[in-house]
Amino acid sequence: MIAIPDCSFNTTENRDPAAELLELSLGPQHPSTHGVFRMNAVLDGETVVRLQPVFGYLHRNHEKIAENVSYLASIPYTDRLDYLCSLTNNWAYALSVEKLTGLDVPERAEYIRIILAELTRLQNHTAFLGFLLGDMGAWGTALMYGFRQREKVLDLFESLTGSRMMSNYMRFGGCRCDFPEGWLEQARTVIDEYPEFLDEMEQLLVSNEILISRTQGVGAISPERAINAGLSGPILRATGVDYDIRKVDRYGIYDRFSFRIPIGDQGDTYDRMMMRLLEMRESLKILKAAIDEIPDGPIVNPKAKLRNLRPPEGEAYGRIESPKGELGFYLISDKQPQPYRFRVRPPSLINLTLLEEMSIGHKIADVMVILGSIDIVLGEVDR
Amino acid sequence: MLTLETIRDRILEAVPDAGVEIISNPGPSGQDSLLVSSGHGLAIALFLRDDPELRFDYCSNVTGVDWLDKTVKEKVIVREDDEDVETQVERVVPGYLEVVYHLYSISKKHGPVVLRLRTADRNEGVELPSLTPVWKSAEFQEREVLDLYGIRFTGHPDPTRLLMWENFEGHPMRKDYCAPDDDEPGDPITARERKEEAS
Amino acid sequence: MDHQLKKELGKQGIHVTSLDSIYNWARSNSMWPMQFGLACCAIEMIAATMARYDLARFGAEIFRPSPRQSDLMIVAGTVTKKMAPTVVRLYNQMPEPKYVIAMGACAISGGPFRDGYNVVKGIDRYIPVDIYIPGCPPRPEALIDGIMKLQEKIHGQKLTGPDRARHADPDSPGEYAVPGTESRDLLPRFNPCIWSPPARQTDSLEYPESKI
């Protein structure tokens, strides 16, 4: 005789919620996580009940090392924070040291910085789209498209800074070297071709039914929660908060360019993805204007001191809008060649604050998409 | 934005008998900060967040700073044999740990206001109120400060280490932390620290 | 068998080869790396598999998400003390024959982060490394070159005799001790079977020796 299983425990009245919960440790290395990140999830069936991120698997002691080396020697380390966007990291650090020492930057160097920062934003968001689609199960195609396009920007970086990823380029009061011959023309070609790629990507993504059902309404957060949790960058703006440090602080010479800040309204994964697509188009506008207007002149402030720099006693907090969000450096100087305190305000880490709130109630497969849409880089999360 | 003096006066108005002191920043950045007594930290944070004119709704950066014991040389006049003699005396200023909060306002688009809280010393009295109930963005960053500096935050929802493993002992970002020797005799850092450890 | 006879047989459609060489030929051209990246180098590793560099040309593009299905571990990035036990455990879970590439300065020696209190100064302290690829990060071409060097190494491996490959030797360990995260440090600090600290050079030492 076949035993008929007792199905009464499946009914809602008799169910003991605690008895069916499953604890699942994802990571520190998961196929679709973005590095050595670990999450301890508690699941009810496939639905997330609790989710706790575990950090520190890439804690490389950047801050401790920086407090033992000179100010100049920290620039290569900043490259390795958010290793997809080394040039914006350089800029944030240079900006903080310039605040600490009261240094001006020549006009041409400001233009160079803006061109490089916006190119960095382009290539970061391009790679982001590929990784996000990979998280949704479209492993391959989108990432191939994204990396194909990213390589063109990396070629520009390489011919200018000598390295594809680790630029070590910006200096206090300017930049390390001027553009090589023909660089601006090459950059213009890349920028002119970019809209074609964006159109292609948008066609692939925006109206795709599977993508919409995987992203719309997934991981939505309210603007109040986003502000309170310190989210920054595209994921803050996806909730409808109009806050872009390029517009608020007007660091560099961003006030000379006309560009718009895309704002979302739902704060869900779809909005977060669209923010990146739209931001890239605005970056292209800035780039076009900057390349047309760039003046001749020196690229570094002659008063700038690089070696054996001993900033006056004091402290400074400088921040920029990096592709991931608000990247800040907090420096305390005690007139020594090494900073007394060197602190990185990592947007990737703080953007993860609401990961649990975003994920609760969604399926475990959606957690990957939500995590992908936050766009973290572990080098910056753990430092 | 209001000046720091006005903010201090408004805090004192709203939270009477709170200790608020302006720490001036001698550097060119001119970012002065407010030193807040730890007993009133939470009330002041709530006021700064909810006051309609200030509205510091965005806590951007939270970090720890370790200030070691300092030896200060002072000239003291001592009375010896009915005669004033000037002698040099060394006095130890006890060190402390500090948490620094950088606050911005997204609705008013101003900032930063730098808030500082100091512990009593570096050994036992390292308790400070957690500001996570006011700004959730402090959650991970305060855990990081707890991990790397050893400041205990009262009222934190999850006071555990953030970066190092659970059974790790010590607080590596403190200035007097000695990294474990990794059997590298020529390594300048470990050799220097070994020397410090031996002395 | 002499070369001339081999050639003659080849003309008749009979190919004679040794078991070693056909086994090595097959293995070296279908390396399945583990999908496993730690830090910056992982991005260059991904770039190597993408359209421009196309690692697939060398038979090593099938990145397996499980150690049980992979032959090659590319340690791409900084190994921290918190991560090292996991890396060694993943290595232990891989089936023989298995190979390790240390990609980038951090995996080789700790690289720029060597002075950090949470950084392992080279993964070869815990697991045997076959190929070292210097660079910070190495370019995708360098990774491809490293994989080709590994293929050359596999071609030269013998299955029998005193100089046989590690995986063909029943006495050699297939698993290595997993270090533990102790109160101050990762213990043991290295695996004495495969690594030992460099000899102390007293004349270059500027600092007095520790009493501890």
Describe the model.
The complex is a heterotrimer of chains A (about 375), B (about 200) and C (about 210). In chain A, strand 6 and strand 7 form a beta hairpin. Chain A is built from 15 helices and eight strands. In chain A, helix 3 packs across helix 4, helix 5 packs antiparallel against helix 6 and helix 6 runs antiparallel to helix 11. Chain A has one domain: Cytochrome-c3 Hydrogenase, chain B, CATH 1.10.645.10. With about 375 residues, chain A is of the alpha+beta class. With about 200 residues, chain B is of the alpha/beta class. Chain B has a single domain, classed as 2-Layer Sandwich (Beta Polymerase, domain 2), CATH 3.30.460.80. Chain B is built from four helices and nine strands, in the order αββαββββββαβα. In chain B, a hairpin with a 4-residue loop joins strand 6 and strand 7. The termini of chain B are far apart. The model of chain B has no long low-confidence stretch (mean pLDDT about 85). Chain C is an alpha/beta fold. Chain C is about 30% helix and about 10% strand. Chain C contains six helices and five strands. Chain C has a three-stranded parallel β-sheet with strand order 1-2-3. In chain C, helix 5 links the parallel strand 2 and strand 3. In chain C, helix 2 runs antiparallel to helix 6 and helix 3 crosses helix 6. The longest helix of chain C has 16 residues. The chains are: A alpha+beta (about 375), B alpha/beta (about 200), C alpha/beta (about 210). Chains A and B meet through helix 3, helix 8, strand 6, strand 7 and strand 8 of A and strand 3 and helix 3 of B.
Query: How much helicity do the residues of chain C have?
Result: 25-40%
User: How do the strands line up in the largest sheet of chain B?
Assistant: 1-2-7-6-3
What class, by secondary structure content of chain C? alpha/beta
Put simply, the count of helices of chain C is: 6
| Secondary structure: number of strands of chain B | 9
Which stretches of chain C are poorly predicted, pLDDT < 50 over at least 5 residues?
none
Secondary-structure element pattern of chain C, one letter each: HHHEHEHEHEE
User: How many structurally independent domains of chain B?
Assistant: 1
Question: Characteristics of this structure?
Answer:
heterotrimer, A: 383 residues, alpha+beta, Cytochrome-c3 Hydrogenase, chain B, 3-stranded antiparallel beta sheet, 15 helices, 8 strands, C: 212 residues, alpha/beta, 3-stranded parallel beta sheet, two-stranded antiparallel sheet, 5 strands, 29% helix, globular
